[in-house]
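Entry 0007
Protein: Class I SAM-dependent methyltransferase
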Amino acid sequence: MNWFSDGGADYALSRPDYPPEVVRHLAGVAPPGAGGAGWVVDVGCGTGQFTEQLATAYPAVIGVDPSADQLANVRAAAGGDRIGRVAYACGAAERLPIADHVASLVTAAQSAHWFDLPRFWDEVRRVTVPGAVVALATYGKLVVGPPGDASLPVPDTGGTIRTGGAAAPLQSDRDRGIDAAGARFQRFYGEEIARFWPPERAMVENGYSDIRFPFEELAAPAATIRRSWRLDDLLGYVGTWSATRNIHARGHGDLIDRFAADMAELWGPPELRRPVQWPVSMRVGRVG
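Output (structure tokens):
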């Protein structure tokens, strides 16, 4: 199922970018033009957040996504940050609309858990030159901090989504540096709507650590996405979740309504900004 066949405008507005060190690291292990290849291919690009970030380091980037609506809402890089050209194409990860042996880097940011991975690996081998790099990136569970606290501890990447078996023990609210609003978000995410997450979400919660990765593994940097959000920003982000779509499709929109009402009571003034952050996990490998 394509969970993001529509809603591209909301996705472009509400999903965070990756920290700059992610692209800097990739440019170090896969320098522009490595192996004589001209292209970087960003697969499952959605509305182009990561594609546009890659274009700040690479002269030719193409984003590929199966959703025409997502591509219609591509969020172009602001302020002339691109150093080269960017193109977009509609297509599946398992059948990329890319010629053979033209890419020095293939990326998948917050999308690989939706792929038929064995078929995607075959496509990676087909479109890359020898010695190219493939990189999967994902950000895990959001933590909402108290006002004025910009130094939240990095959240755990596992044990919060009950998609099978018992959940691992959770950190205490104090350990996570959160107040009542942050705790309400954690309860909503990890308990109230857990049954509505597609099973693929567990791969995100595990930081892709359980993916069978058939390439020579390279080191990846530790990174964290940090933002300062108003309540509307948070609720907009929640609205882009596959679980939220599932909730509405099954007629349980009251769960979202109760959560939004509780957060409005606990958040503080609507214009108040709170620190939010996600842990970033990566799998990076060299294609033989």
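Curator remark: Confidence is low (pLDDT under 50) at residues 1-7, 155-170. The longest helix spans residues 253-267.
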